Amino acid sequence: MGEVEHFHHVSFLVSNSLQAAFWYCCNFGFARFAEKQTDKFVEIAVKNGKAIFVFKSALRPNVAEIKEDIICHGDFIKDVAFMVDDIECVVERISKLGARILSSIEKIFDEKGSVLSAKVESCCGRLVHTLIQNIDYTGIFIPGYKPTDNFKFANSLLPVRLNFIDHVVESHPPGTLDDVAEWYKETLRLKRFWSVDDLYSDKSLLPVKGWLLNDSKRTTQLMIAEPIIKKGVRGQHEEFQEYHGGAGIQHIALNVTNIVDAIDTMKRQGADFLSIPDTYYDQLEERLGKTKLKVEENLKEIRRLKILMDFDEKGYLLQIFTKPVQDRPTLFIEIIQRRNFDGFGAGNFKALFAAIEEEQKRRKTFFLENEPKI
Ligand SMILES: O=C(O)C(=O)Cc1ccc(O)cc1
Ligand SMILES: [Fe+2]
């Protein structure tokens, strides 16, 4: 007991929740469905399938609880919320470990029933984790949120179907993964499922260390990553941490059943993804030609839409990554489809890392000598 069941939602702290929510609805097919307002904050919840994002902003100046956060990080993911089976057990373990309990267990309720909820600090910068255990809640989201209609304009767009949050990736400073993995094991019972000490070891690209942590049923996938520092250049995690202001969520992957349809629609409606060279698809088709794997999708469409593909003898995954989704080069979104393949696209790391480094060079954040002199 005392285990995580699945991601419940992800909550962003932003300067204007209305605009952020609208932007996510237009780009990724979310629909606004719930809202909560207090004297200090407004929160807007958007949903697509089981994936729920919440955007929170302050309604007045100098709100103490978030002042530091907003000054330091800009718009960012503040809270990765988990559904747990026994909140008392989890909170007790967390307090024993010495982590701060930001809100102790509380029963929250409205006319649709109740849940137990608590909030704890994480070991990932200023990220927090809300923990939720259901009692008998039948409402739309969490007690206290009122239903809202979707944005009229977003309703008129072509639909995009997402399923759920496939995985979340945290970016940590170099040399800290052991402690981070230990923290998630001791608190949330997330265990290391696999680890790669060098996610991509080609000498021409910058290495990243990444470990995948899972709950026992493997429905919650949390990846923790850190850079392996190289002189003279700023890798993707150094760039993230420098612009974000420390450790934080680097990307969120959203699971889909039909990635070709989803990406075709998202691209038509303006979502901006990393570009992949044609040579990647020449090599992919050659490698696929040597296997007996049956691919349902049209490879011409995969090439046209610049979707990445990795496979083994049993199945395959298709994935694509957006450019950063705010002014700073920090958080990005991944769309992923799995067909009998629950690993990570190790065969895609080269293409992904090359595309990210290309973007870094374009933004002039890759080489350290280009650092702006303040
Ligand atoms: O391939 C994926 O979807 C991953 O999530 C792996 C990953 C982990 C860390 C990175 O900096 C980049 C990619
Ligand atoms: Fe990912």
From TrEMBL:
**Which reaction(s) are listed as its catalytic activity?**
3-(4-hydroxyphenyl)pyruvate + O2 = homogentisate + CO2
Q: Where in the cell is it found?
A: Cytoplasm; Endoplasmic reticulum membrane; Golgi apparatus membrane
Gene Ontology terms, MF aspect: 4-hydroxyphenylpyruvate dioxygenase activity; metal ion binding; protein homodimerization activity
Domain VOC positions:
6-134, 164-323
Binding-site residues for Fe cation, renumbered to this chain:
H167, H251, E334
Membrane topology type: Peripheral membrane protein
What biological processes does GO assign it? Answer: L-phenylalanine catabolic process; L-tyrosine catabolic process
User: Which domain of life does the protein's organism represent?
Assistant: Eukaryota
- Annotated Gene3D superfamilies: 2,3-Dihydroxybiphenyl 1,2-Dioxygenase, domain 1
Pathway involvement of the protein, from the record: Amino-acid degradation; L-phenylalanine degradation; acetoacetate and fumarate from L-phenylalanine: step 3/6
Tell me which InterPro entries the record gives.
4OHPhenylPyrv_dOase, 4OHPhenylPyrv_dOase_C, 4OHPhenylPyrv_dOase_N, Glyas_Bleomycin-R_OHBP_Dase, Glyas_Fos-R_dOase_dom, VOC_core
Task: Name the cofactor(s) required for activity, per the record.
Answer: Fe cation
Bilayer-spanning residue ranges: none
Keywords, comma-separated and alphabetical: Cytoplasm, Dioxygenase, Endoplasmic reticulum, Golgi apparatus, Iron, Membrane, Metal-binding, Oxidoreductase, Phenylalanine catabolism, Repeat, Tyrosine catabolism
Q: Which CDD domains match?
A: HPPD_C_like, HPPD_N_like
Q: How is the cofactor bound?
A: Binds 1 Fe cation per subunit.
Gene Ontology CC annotation, any one: endoplasmic reticulum membrane
Entries under Pfam families matching the protein: Glyoxalase
Q: Family assignment?
A: Belongs to the 4HPPD family.
Matching entries from PANTHER family are given as:
4-HYDROXYPHENYLPYRUVATE DIOXYGENASE, PROTEIN C31H2.4-RELATED
Q: How does it assemble?
A: Homodimer.
Function, please? Catalyzes the conversion of 4-hydroxyphenylpyruvic acid to homogentisic acid, one of the steps in tyrosine catabolism.
Q: What is this protein called?
A: 4-hydroxyphenylpyruvate dioxygenase
Species classification: Eukaryota, Metazoa, Ecdysozoa, Nematoda, Chromadorea
